[in-house]
From TrEMBL:
This is Beta,beta-carotene 9',10'-oxygenase-like. Its cofactor is Fe(2+). The gene is bco2l. GO terms for molecular function: beta-carotene 15,15'-dioxygenase activity; carotenoid dioxygenase activity; metal ion binding. Keywords: Iron, Metal-binding. GO terms for cellular component: mitochondrion. Binds 1 Fe(2+) ion per subunit. Belongs to the carotenoid oxygenase family. The keyword Ion transport does not apply. It holds the Pfam family RPE65.
């Protein structure tokens, strides 16, 4: 590796306006019943007849067992949702994931499996010595896979951020076998945000730790036909291993960047402390307390060739930032363009406790105003930085971006803000989605997201990168989920299709609906009203069916 450093010296302080009198959202994080058999919905407007398939969603749906309650929103038991669409009609069903965590908690009628923000209490029936020493045991990883639906070899799984996934019947939502990544390759965990190439292979990011230190691994699972009777990750391989810059304090990550020829791991200054993890276990504190935000540290972009697994020789640095979700990435004339949602305060992850989400009045306002504003940014990396490249010279020569990269002794790389100030009135944005089928890893113009004028998304946004112009769907008291784009079968333009989102409200029970917007005009085509309560969820996808 060369010592070339590209450092982003800009620290953005742009923030949404302070809020007061925010609406109480406690009902959006309350336990609900499952709806295991499909029920009809009431259609208002029109659902395009060309849409045939299932909108699958995941997220927490049960927050207590008996008298014991989960402390953190991420800990709720996974509830899977299916909106099946055909001939302009929609049915709805939902099922709790029958994970080992769910089954064991239900059998004991108390929380017996530790989660991200909730440490399971020792069995009160144990004698005092067994109770004491149980504090020194490392808790087993959970299989409560409540973050997203993912595909490997054409089969559907639900995933979280541990080494366990669950295979799912995408029609009945039946829980199938438990899958342990470590039985296929030497990793301890993988993200819930894989990428897919156009040949059907799936890429992901995992990690491992041992005598040789802590490593981040780029993974590849080969294509398949989706007709496997049992879970099958055979052929999975580690393409590239990246040593942690500080093996004592590895970085937290939620996703990664992929273009046609490169994969980028973003080593951000949200750090995990394994020693503190053990000490907290003894003290009876939960996992999310071992994460720390270190703004004095740099963010490092590790770039690897997607085909060979080789890391490129240049090291890229930016000032401290954190990112959960990528928008898109593509290559252009020797540059790698990376668009992502970024924040300047990585403490946000641990803040989504049930106590904070169920607050009201001034306490809710205070919590919301303490959260950083996530905003879209563009970083541009020059892929071929020569040893004799002159210092103090901008290496980026693209007409459509103001992002810069300057090689100096310390290095300077400046991102471009992918928004105008009007975005701030909608609270910034998160949960970005694109026309993934046809435009992922390619130059693109549009992305869709949730605006965050509240703790949870309270608007849907369409960003046109030509002029950074917004289209907005927003109605008081309604909280839409992550938008998912579905291309029209005869699409000619990038935004020919629909955007789907599940909309819920704390104002009235059993008033949820599936919203379908025309992606081009961003106006409502129709909705499917569901007479059930649906909690605020995380991620989903559309499963096109013939």
């Amino acid at each position: 590796f060369t010592d070339t450093k590209l450092l982003n010296s800009v620290y953005s302080n742009k923030k949404r306006p302070s809020a007061s009198g925010l609406e109480f959202i406690g009902p959006l994080v309350s336990s609900v019943e499952e709806t295991p058999y499909p029920i009809s919905t009431v259609i208002k407007g029109e659902i395009p007849s060309w849409i045939t398939g299932s909108f699958l969603r995941n997220g927490p749906g049960r927050f207590e067992f008996g008298e014991s309650k989960f402390n953190h929103w991420f800990d709720g038991m996974a509830l899977m949702h299916r909106f099946h669409i055909k001939d302009g009609q929609v049915t709805y069903s939902s099922c709790f994931l029958r994970s080992d965590s769910y089954v064991q908690n239900a059998e004991k009628n108390r929380i017996v499996v530790s989660e991200f923000g909730t440490l399971a209490t020792p069995d009160p029936c144990k004698n005092i010595f067994a109770w004491f020493f149980s504090r020194f045991q490392i808790p087993k990883a959970t299989d409560n896979a409540g973050v997203s639906f993912v595909k490997y070899k054409g089969d559907f799984y639900v995933s979280t951020e541990t080494n366990f996934m669950r295979k799912i019947d995408s029609v009945s939502l039946e829980t199938k076998e438990k899958v342990d990544w470590s039985e296929y390759i030497a990793i301890n965990a993988a993200t819930a945000h894989p990428h897919y190439d156009r040949d059907g292979a799936t890429y992901n990011l995992g990690n491992s730790y041992g005598r040789n230190g802590f490593f981040y691994h780029i993974l590849r699972v080969p294509p398949g036909d989706g007709k496997n009777d049992v879970a099958d990750l055979s052929g999975a391989e580690i393409l590239c291993s990246i040593p942690a810059s500080d093996p004592r304090k590895p970085s937290y990550y939620h996703s990664f960047v992929m273009s046609e020829n490169y994969i980028v791991f973003i080593e951000q200054p949200i750090k995990l402390d394994p020693l503190k993890f053990m000490l907290y276990r003894v003290a009876g504190k939960s996992f999310h307390k071992v994460m720390s935000w270190n703004p004095e540290l740099e963010t490092i972009f590790h770039v690897a060739d997607r085909h060979t697994g080789q890391l490129i020789k240049t090291k890229y640095y930016s000032s401290a930032m954190f990112t959960l979700h990528q928008i898109n990435a593509y290559e252009d004339n020797g540059y790698l363009i990376m668009d992502m949602c970024c924040g300047d305060d990585g403490t946000v992850i641990g803040d989504f406790t049930m106590e904070n989400l169920q607050a009201s009045g001034e306490e809710l306002d205070k919590f919301f105003n303490s959260l950083c504003t996530n905003l879209p940014r563009r970083y541009v990396l020059p892929l071929d930085v020569k040893e004799d490249e002159p210092n103090d010279h901008n290496l980026i020569n693209l007409p459509y971006t103001t992002a810069t990269a300057v090689k100096t002794v310390t290095g300077v790389c400046d991102h471009e803000d992918l928004y105008n100030d009007d975005l701030l009135q909608y609270g910034g944005l998160e949960f970005p989605q694109i026309n993934y089928t046809y435009y992922n890893a390619r130059p693109y113009r549009y992305f869709y997201a949730c605006g965050f004028g509240h703790v949870f998304g309270d608007s849907l946004l369409k960003m046109d990168l030509e002029g950074k112009k917004l289209k907005v769907w927003r109605h008081a008291g309604l909280f839409p989920s992550e938008p998912v784009f579905v291309p029209a079968p005869d699409a000619k333009d990038e935004d020919d299709g629909v955007v789907m989102s599940v909309v819920i409200t704390p104002r009235e029970k059993k008033s949820s609906f599936l919203l379908v917007l025309d992606a081009k005009t961003f106006t409502e085509l129709g909705r499917a009203e569901v007479p059930v309560d649906i909690p605020y969820g995380t991620h989903g996808l559309f499963n096109e069916m013939s």
